[in-house]
Amino acid sequence: MSTKEGVQGAIEFTKFVIALDSGLIAFMTGATFLGKLHSTIEIVAAIIVLALLAASLCAGVLVYMAAITMIDDADYNLASSHIRIPGQINVVCFAVGAAGVGVLAVLELFLKNNAA
């Protein structure tokens, strides 16, 4: 059985991932980064990464809302599908999206500058 502290820890972790998602989305949509994307494959990759980060952000909000409701109801079941499934989507989409941002950033900001 989960405790209230476990749910509060999940809330804090979710808020952290939401903040990171927001920062990466801001970085990806910044004019400096978008101006460096020229080929179709780069633009498609950027759209896929943004979709993953947006999915992570939405899933994180669902986890946050469910966890707050659990605390209010004094039901600390972290195995609930209302927390577990969006939580997995949140973490996996964030990890893949953040890796995608890293790959795109290395390609665009470092490798293309050295090739020119």
Automatic annotation (TrEMBL):
Keyword list, A-Z: Membrane, Transmembrane, Transmembrane helix
Superkingdom assignment: Bacteria
Transmembrane segments: 16-34, 43-67, 87-111
Identification of the protein by name: Uncharacterized protein
